[in-house]
Write a structure and sequence with these properties.
alpha+beta; six-stranded mixed β-sheet; five-stranded antiparallel β-sheet; 6 helices; globular
């Protein structure tokens, strides 16, 4: 067993763990109390909706942010009769699917995670690409002069009232962020060709 980032990681998981941490550290930054912080240093308890939304911005276009119900709270391991509403990310590495659960600060093989926590009642399962297509062409962002710099607008009172757990408060999570995007080779003709370059979130 190898100790990495205060989390005990098996040799089987270590390459995916390192891949995920490197990707997020490269692309996702969080401002906390006016200071730029490493994503993994942010207190995680109660912030799964936000941390999962921010994390998927740092992954690949086909990676997923998922919202559903699991059997036990990831933080304390307590089982609840009706389950626990939660959000996590699913990503591919070398042809295998993995889960990162921000509450546990841990990478799992997806099959192992599903066997342990029994996710069900999935209410949102969106790729990074789908999220970008949903919001970057909408009234919810300001677009920078060169077209590669997006600032998500703060929600109005009316919009905030429409936020639900079903999509894990996705727009609210993104409204705390400043997104820089790059493109795939060649000038894009459609928003689906964008990919994230950097995402800076502000935990407030």
């Amino acid at each position: 067993m190898i100790k990495l980032n205060i989390v005990t990681v098996s040799r089987e998981i270590e390459p995916a763990h390192n891949y995920f941490h490197d990707k997020i550290r490269e692309k996702v930054l969080v401002v906390l109390n006016g200071k730029m912080r490493d994503y993994f240093s942010i207190p995680a308890q109660g912030w799964c909706y936000y941390l999962s939304a921010w994390a998927v911005m740092g992954l690949d276009s086909d990676d997923l942010r998922v919202v559903g119900t699991i059997d036990e709270t990831p933080t304390y391991g307590r089982k609840r009769p009706n389950g626990y509403k939660h959000a996590w990310v699913e990503f591919q590495f070398e042809g295998e699917w993995y889960v990162y659960d921000s509450s546990k600060r841990h990478v799992y093989l997806r099959d192992d995670y599903y066997d342990r926590y029994h996710p069900r009642k999935i209410t949102s399962k969106l790729t990074q690409n789908k999220i970008l297509r949903m919001f970057l062409g909408s009234e919810h962002v300001y677009i920078g002069k060169e077209g590669y710099d997006y600032v998500f607008k703060d929600l109005s009172v009316e919009e905030d009232k429409k936020q639900t757990e079903d999509d894990g408060y996705l727009l609210d999570a993104l409204s705390r962020g400043h997104l820089y995007v790059g493109t795939f080779p060649g000038r894009p003709k459609d928003i689906k060709e964008y990919t994230t370059r950097t995402f800076i979130a502000c935990r407030r």
